[in-house]
Amino acid sequence: MLSRLPVGSLKNVGASFAGARSRAFSGMRVAPPLASRATLASATVLAVGSVAWYTNLYGTLPFIGEVHANSPAEEGLHSPQYPWSHSGLLDSFDHASIRRGYQVYREVCAACHSLDRTAWRNLVGVSHTVDEVKAMAEEVEYEDGPNDQGEMFQRPGKLSDYMPPPYPNEEAARASNSGALPPDLSLIVKARHGGADYIFALLTGYRDPPAGFEIRDDMNYNPYFPGNAIAMARVLFDGLVEYDDEPEHDERKKAGLKAVIIFSALTAVSLYVKRFKWSVIKSRKIPPMSSESWPPPLKYGSVSPRPPHGSLYRRRDWVAKCLGQMTDSNRAEAQAELRQVIADSFVNKTLWTTDWAGVQLKSHDGATVSNKKTKKATIFKTAGESALDPQDLAALNRRAARFQREHDIERQKNARNMGDHRSPYPGYGNPHLFKEHLGTPDTDEPESNHACFLNVPNWDRFTIVGTSQEIFKDYLRLTSEPKPEQIRPYPVLQQTLDQLKKRWREKVSYSWICSQFKSLRQDLTVQRIKNEFTVTVYEIHARMALEVGDMVEYNQCQAMLRNLYELGIPGKVEEFTAYRILMLLHGRNRSELNLERIRALMVMTKAYKTISLSFIQNELAFDTLAVAREFLMDHRAGFFQNPNSPDMEKILDCKPAGAPLAQVFEEKYRKVQIKGAV
């Protein structure tokens, strides 16, 4: 078709096409700069908007830090960042820790705060099993209906139900908390700036208000709360909640990792030793020895033909003799000394030249003397009975009785002269134990007494008695065996307590006083001193800890005082029992009360066949019969002979109720020692 057009027309078309092409290229050269500027402006607007949105949502600039719109007094002190175990990129939540957190909420926080947006099923697989959650849900009654008659009814809770609030409405919650509304805790971590760091800092950040800061009587000072004044008082204290399991998850993981590393290193070292060291020794050929190359003292007939008792004992016979003289009380010490003696003689190159007949172990001295005395008394007694006539034997017996009476009279006089003085160190109040401690035998004791106590370990010989004369000494955790020159003796410890009481009246820093008291307690423990002075030390430290609010040291002193009181050592038992009761009432902790009730029920079910519910209410101090019945049902012991009768007439069948009570006691009230509770 183009071939039919005139040549001029083709030229015009070509020119127009070339012009259009040149205009298109010129437009393209102008468009990129305009497009790049528009893209840059759009990207800038998007970045600034994203930063503003992130800052408004989280309160911090991304990758930079904090941004505060108001002053710290208005917004509260910013919480620090804590090293949570689940904060890592590949870390997950600790389900045992979540279970303990729910236990804290149920025993402490649930009195005022609700979890309205959390259903029971949300706990399944996270902190509890399905059966446990069902049991907890069934403890709560929910209103449902209408039924076939059009009436509302009460039913036990199900997994789909939401957790009940502590108050029926907001007005009741405000009235119970001085006008303040306790917030719902379902989404509290997401709803608060700072998340878990803020919650932890708020709960543990209660302080005394600084000078010049005015606060109402019904408010509490907390620097992390906006306005620094919060209506909620401090509710969490160490030892307030008795956990079902141990809260040492992170410590166990770290210890397990260290153990894996150590065992891996030991495995590598053992493989190296077996491959390159032991295999060479094992494959080495040992040439046979002739009689000329054998050490001369061990050759048969090399020793002068003297009587057996004067010859050199062979080491094997001496070792057999030592092993035969060992008793249960000194076996470990004698074996250690035996190995040490042989090793020293080998190092000194006297293994073949030592006269082993004259070597006696120190640990065998007391046992040998006692055995010799017993054997000698037996031999003399047998020989006397066979060689003397009845009259001479009767005269010897009367003489022995007279000497024994004289010894007893002399011993009683010495006891009266000593009075009731008791040494603070265990075993030193008895003169015979004191002689054993010094290594001197008690010749006044009958021979039979030595033979009777041969197998009783003398623990007093291992008691450390300090020699340091320093009045004050900072507390340091023991990492090795204590040395006597670093331990203060009993008289110096008494002077230390007097000085610490004077310093406390002079308003000295509590941190220094606490360190000194911990060092004092450590010296008492190392020296096994448990008397009235020990009780006084712990009581004074517990009172000081209460004054400054140091609940960690108070709980440690309280636990030690309970052990000392159980030993029968006198002290302020009523005072510290009252302190413990007040702490339990303040924390609403009924675990120990229920523990004693379970123990009483276990005894009662073993002693009786049937018990009335009213008797259980009176004996175990329940408020009402309904509370007593619910307690039995909660602990799987509600086996009544007449379950449909009124509570006043209900009779408990003790035989089937005994086994569940013992099982519940082991499962629910098993005590676990906690260190470092969060």
UniProtKB/TrEMBL annotation:
Cytochrome c domain ranges (all copies): 96-226
Cofactor binding, per record: Binds 1 heme c group covalently per subunit.
Biological process according to GO: mitochondrial electron transport, ubiquinol to cytochrome c
Broad enzyme group: translocase
Binding-site residues for heme c, renumbered to this chain: 109, 112-113, 232
Location(s), subcellular: Mitochondrion inner membrane
Pfam families listed in its UniProt record: Cytochrom_C1 (PF02167), SAC3_GANP (PF03399)
Keywords carried by this UniProt record: Electron transport, Heme, Iron, Membrane, Metal-binding, Mitochondrion, Mitochondrion inner membrane, Respiratory chain, Translocase, Transmembrane, Transmembrane helix, Transport
GO CC aspect terms: mitochondrial inner membrane
InterPro entries: Cyt_c-like_dom, Cyt_c-like_dom_sf, Cyt_c1, Cyt_c1_TM_anchor_C, SAC3/GANP/THP3_conserved
Cofactor annotation: heme c
Catalytic reactions of this protein: a quinol + 2 Fe(III)-[cytochrome c](out) = a quinone + 2 Fe(II)-[cytochrome c](out) + 2 H(+)(out)
EC number: 7.1.1.8
Domain of life of the organism encoding this protein: Eukaryota
One term of GO molecular function: metal ion binding
Family: Belongs to the cytochrome c family.
Protein name: quinol--cytochrome-c reductase
Taxonomic path: Eukaryota, Fungi, Dikarya, Basidiomycota, Agaricomycotina
